[in-house]
Amino acid sequence: MPMAVILVGIGLVLTLPIFSRILSRAVAGKSRSLSLGLAMRRNEVEPGGALRVATGLVLLVYAASLAQGVLIELDQVSKNTSPVQSYSLSLDGVTADRQHAFESVRAVRGHGVEASSWRDDRVEFPPIIHAVFATCGQVRGMVPGIERCQEGQPFRAVNPHESYDEDSKPGARFSFRLRNQVGEKRVMTLRVPQQRVIFDDEPGTSAVSSGDVVVPPSFLPHGFRPEGSTLTLVSSSAPQIVRSVLDDIGGVDPIASVMTTGLVVDALQQITVVKTILGMGMVLGLVIGVAAYLVAATDRAVERRPQVTALSLLGARPRTLRAVQVAQVVLPLAVGLVLAVVTGKAAESSYLVTGGGEVFWDGAGVPLLLACALGVVLVAAVGSLPLVGRKIDPELIRRD
Fold first, then answer.
1. pLDDT in tens for each of the 400 residues of the chain?
2. How many CA atoms lie within 13 A of 386 on its CB side?
3. How many angstroms separate the CA atoms of 168 and 213, rounded?
4. Are the CB atoms for 233 and 107 separated by under 8 Å?
5. Strand 155-158 relative to strand 196-198, pairing
C-alpha cells in the first residue's frame, strides 16, 4: 500500500504536463480573450514551465488527503463507538469524601455504585444478581435510552436486544454484605422487584445490563456501602470529553486505577502524540511548499523577462501581462489540484479499506480539501501578480 501511494503521486506529477497541454490547446482554440489566449499558447508550447512551479502545491494537497485518511483511521481506533463512555473505579479503601469528589467530576452526567450479591462458595454455581445503587436521575445520565422510572422505588432493567440474567427473577432474595469506613459489617437482603424499566441500547455499550436491579441509595444504611463495589461514572464519548474526565479523575487521585470500557487509555495517549506529529508535519510541509513555490515562481519570472519585455514593446499593457501570468499559472494548477483531490481521496479510501476501517469514503473531508485547494490557488494567483515589472528594459531583448 505505501508503494502504491508513492506510485500514484509520481503518476500524478507525470500526467500533469499532458493534461495541461491538452486543456491549453482546447481553451486557446476557443477563447477570444487576448490574455487567456497568450497564456494558453504559452502553456501549450511549454507545459512543464508552469507545472514546475505548481507541482509542489499539487503534491501538498495530495499529501493532505492521505494525512486525513490516517487521522480518520486513528480516530476510529481511539474512539468509542458508543455514545457514552463509562469509567469504573474500585471503592476499596476509598473514603466517602473522595468518592463524592469522583462523582462531582466535570462532564460526568451520571454515576452509580455497582455491586454483586453475596456468593456461597460451597455451591458450584450459586445464583447471583448485579445491583446498581443510583437514583432515577443518575441512571438516566448513565443510560440515555432508558424509560421513565419512579423515584425511590427499585426496578429491574430490561434490554430487548440483550440476553436477560436468568438469576434475576422477580421475588427472589439475595444478600449483600455491607461495610462502613470504621470496619463495621452488615448484611442487607434485597428482593428482586416486579417492576421493570426497558432501555434500548446496543449490547455491551451501556453501563447497565439486562437483568440488573437498580436500587435507590436510600436503601443503604447511612455510611455503609457494598463490599467489593465499584463506582461507575458516565460521560460523553467525545475524545476531548474523555480526556477531560480522565484528567479530573487524576486530579482527585493520581494513582487511581480506572477501567474504561471500549477504550484503551494508553492507546489514546499514543494516538494523541501521533496526531500531533502528523499535524506538525503538515504545517512544515505547507511552509516548505509555499517557500518552494515562491522560489520557483521567481526563478521562472527571471527566465521570462525577455518575453515579457518583447510583449511590452509590442504594446501589451501591464494589466494584460499580469492577467496572462496569473492565468498561465492558475489554470494548470487548478487541473493539478482537481487531480490531486480525486487521486488523494481514492488513495485514502484504499488505505482505509486495506486497514479494515469502517469509513471508506469520508464525505465530510471533501469541503476541507476543496478549501485547501482554493487557498493554494489564491496563493499562486497573488504570487504571480508582482512578477511583471512596470519598467521596460530593452537590454533584455538585445540578443533576440
1. 788 888 888 888 888 888 878 888 888 888 777 777 777 777 777 766 656 666 777 888 888 777 777 777 776 666 666 778 889 999 988 888 999 999 999 889 889 999 999 887 777 788 889 999 999 888 888 887 788 888 889 999 998 888 888 889 999 999 999 988 888 899 999 999 999 898 887 666 677 888 899 999 999 998 899 988 999 999 988 878 888 899 999 999 988 888 887 776 776 777 778 778 877 877 787 777 777 777 766 666 666 667 767 777 677 777 777 777 777 777 777 888 888 888 888 888 787 777 666 666 666 667 777 887 788 778 777 776 665 555 656 665 665 5
2. 7
3. 8
4. no
5. parallel
Q: 0.85 cut: is pTM over it?
A: no
Is 260 within 8 Å of 272 (Cβ atoms)? Answer: no
The SS3 of residue 205 is: coil
Q: What value, to the nearest 5°, has the Cα angle with vertex 258 and ends 132 and 184?
A: 55
- Cell triple for 91: 471503592
Task: Confirm if 217 and 133 have CB atoms less than 8 A apart.
Answer: yes
Gap between the Cα atoms of 381 and 370, Å rounded: 16
Q: How far is CA 126 from CA 123, 166, 228, 268, 392, in A?
A: 5, 12, 17, 39, 99
| Residue 132 · residue 214 · CB < 8 Å | yes
Q: Are 245 and 105 in contact (CB under 8 A)?
A: yes
Domain residue ranges of the chain, discontinuous segments joined by + = 2-79+270-397, 84-262
For the record, the C-alpha cell of 375 comes out as 487557498
Place of cell 512543464: 48
Q: What are the grid coordinates assigned to 392, written together?
A: 521596460
Give 210's contacts (C-beta < 8 A, 6+ positions apart).
157, 158, 159, 162, 163, 164, 165
Q: Do 119 and 130 form a contact (C-beta atoms < 8 A)?
A: no
Closest C-alpha to 84, from 147, 143, 161, 136 = 143
